[in-house]
Amino acid sequence: MGVGHVSHTVGQTAKKRKVTIYDLAKEAGVSTATISRVINRSPSVDYETRHRILALCAKHNYRPRIVKNKEPHVGVLIEHHVQLQMGLSDYFAGIVSGATEYAYQKKLELSVLLFESQDLRNPEDVVAFLLEKDVSGAIFVAPPVDAGYIYALHRIGFPYLSIASRFQSEEINSVRTDNVAGVVNSVHYLSGLGHRRIGFVTVDMDHYDAIERQEAFVRTMGQLNLPFEPHDVVRLPSNTTDHKRLGYDAVRVIIQDRSRLPTALICLNDDLAMGIIRGLSDQGISVPADLSIVGFDDYPYAQYMTPALTTVRNRIYDMGYLGCEIVERWIRGTPQKISRVLESQLIVRGSCQSPRKT
After folding, report:
1. 194 - beta bridge partners?
2. Can you tell me the distance from the alpha carbon of 293 to that of 283, in angstroms, rounded to the nearest whole number?
3. How many CA atoms lie within 13 A of 280 on its CB side?
């Protein structure tokens, strides 16, 4: 029997009661032991059989070990290599905090799970991973823009949401921040102060926010007819999760040619900005008297820095809270089709001023 050819008998059963392991075994034409081995990812089951069984599990929303009246279990999933690039920073913490608060209010079970993308190359691998973790719905944080496992879950109708990423297909359910408006407002603000030599400091990684923010910066500089050279974008290696340290070390690159030193910098995130401000201070360069700095994300410490950091406030917490709400509603029978962009806001503090007249 091919994938997706589910008998009318099981379909009728699913409307009256939950599908059991015995129903699945009968439909798939295998023993209950085989069903159990597939769910527990045993390598002893051949590819075709495993694929057919997992397709049935997904179609009938079968969840092993579910007890009566058990609340949904939402998984917040982060790719291990993304976590290594960015660290479990205030960014991830804010998203998880929002999801946790919603789960607490609704008495849901919630887990934070790390995974390797190469382990989820095939659709059945994605379903098997989530079934193994007893997850009813999945929130993926900052998945790469080519993440095949997102498309796989979309195709089989498993409750999911992508946070802080954007896919070519508008059908993919996602919630993300308005990176473009944040960058545009930052460049316009600095230009309004009189800055014309503006730089952008980012990290060399395939994270959607990093890509979109850099592209928005280059585009906005051109639209305002501000002078721009390729070296005005400083791309730092993603060889550490400590972006504060990365920003601190980047100062040596930024100031190596004082004749081309910008009068203002926009940073990928507040961690980079914090490190850069400290590094500039150690080199005798004052912020904002000598160089203005704009951060991104408005982490909790930004307002307590010296000087207090001008930054783009993103609704990081709200992405997690809303994401958990969307997935929970889907689990409970209301499929979601959503592509939502949450507004950003430039928060002006003390790290920017008009450039010195020369």
Report:
1. none
2. 15
3. 27
Q: What are phi and psi of 197, to 5 degrees?
A: -95, 95
Are 198 and 248 members of one domain?
A: yes
Angle between helix 148-156 and 123-132 (nearest 10): 80
* Containing structural domain, residue 277: 179-314
pLDDT one-digit tens code per residue, 210-244? 999 999 999 999 999 999 999 899 999 877 778 89
Buried b / exposed e over 239-263, threshold 16 CB at 10 Å, is eeeebbebbbbbbeebbeeeeeebb
Are 198 and 113 in the same domain?
Answer: no
Contacts of 316 (CB under 8 A, 6+ apart): 90, 91, 94, 95, 98, 177, 297
Residues whose CB is less than 8 angstroms from the CB of residue 322 and which lie 6 or more positions away in sequence, other chains included: 98, 175, 340, 342
* CATH code, domain with 17: 1.10.260.40
Q: What is the DSSP string of 174-197?
A: EEEE-HHHHHHHHHHHHHHHT---
* pLDDT digits 0-9 by tens, 28-84: 899 888 888 887 767 788 877 887 887 788 777 676 554 445 678 999 998 876 655
Structure token pair of residue 104? 């607490």
Question: What's the CA gap between 46 and 38, in Å, rounded?
Answer: 9
Q: Measured between alpha carbons, how far is 168 from 206 in angstroms, rounded to an integer?
A: 15
